[in-house]
Design goal:
The chain is α/β, with parallel strands linked by helices. Helices cover about 25% and strands about 30% of the residues. The chain has helices spanning about 5, 15-30, 65-80, 115-125, 160-170, and strands at about 35-40, 60, 85, 100-105, 125-140, 175-185, 190-200. The chain starts with a helix and ends with a strand.
Length: about 210
């Protein structure tokens, strides 16, 4: 998938409406604070982050697509929005940010990550003790969801039990899992039903 090419047309009505629902779900497991520093992995054009600016003091939005980040930066400039900081994935190589974040969250990004355990271990380094990780992603399906996308090399969703074990291996605790969204994606083969889970866990160990 070439996210740079998709950036300008990424903000569909469906994605905008879904972002509002998912942001509301995230708010139910966190708390409002003028001090919370959050990081979003795979922020895209900022649809989710811009629905969370009322609860987090600062959001560092990380994405590998420069065009997605450019769209986000245009939104921030046009809307005179403060407290949101677009970052390339090079940000994750800066050890000065280790143990600096209260919350790390992500939506629909993890099924694009090939080295999941490596990524999870890395994110753990950025969290403060007792910090939260909140991952929203696709339940396991047979491959129809990304059938129209050329060169898709990610995961066809996740088995929930297997997904939880990845985080347990990295030392996360108090893991909770729930279904947070049901929808349909239109493809060349018709509508594909899908569900999203939200996995919430705590960085209790250092």
């Amino acid at each position: 998938m070439n996210f740079d090419q998709m950036a300008k047309n990424w903000d569909t009505k469906e994605r905008e409406e879904r972002a509002i629902i998912l942001a509301d779900k995230i708010k139910t497991v966190t708390y409002n604070s003028s001090k919370i520093k959050a990081m979003e992995i795979g922020c895209g054009t900022g649809l989710l982050a811009l629905n969370l600016i009322d609860v987090y003091a600062k959001i560092y939005c990380v994405d590998e697509s420069e065009e997605m980040l450019r769209v986000l930066m245009d939104k921030l400039k046009t809307g005179h929005i403060e407290g949101v900081y677009p970052c390339t994935t090079a940000f994750l190589n800066n050890y000065n940010w280790y143990e600096q974040f209260d919350i790390i969250y992500s939506s629909m990004a993890f099924h694009h990550i090939s080295q999941l355990q490596t990524e999870i271990d890395l994110l753990k380094l950025f969290l403060k003790k007792n910090g939260l990780v909140i991952i929203i992603d696709l339940d396991m399906e047979e491959g129809r969801f990304h059938k129209d996308e050329e060169n898709f090399q990610g995961h066809n969703g996740f088995d929930r039990e297997t997904f939880v074990k990845l985080f347990e291996t990295s030392g996360f605790e108090k893991i909770q899992m729930e279904t947070v969204y049901q929808g349909e994606k239109m493809t060349s083969k018709g509508a594909v039903p899908y569900t999203l889970f939200m996995c919430v866990m705590q960085n209790s160990m250092k």
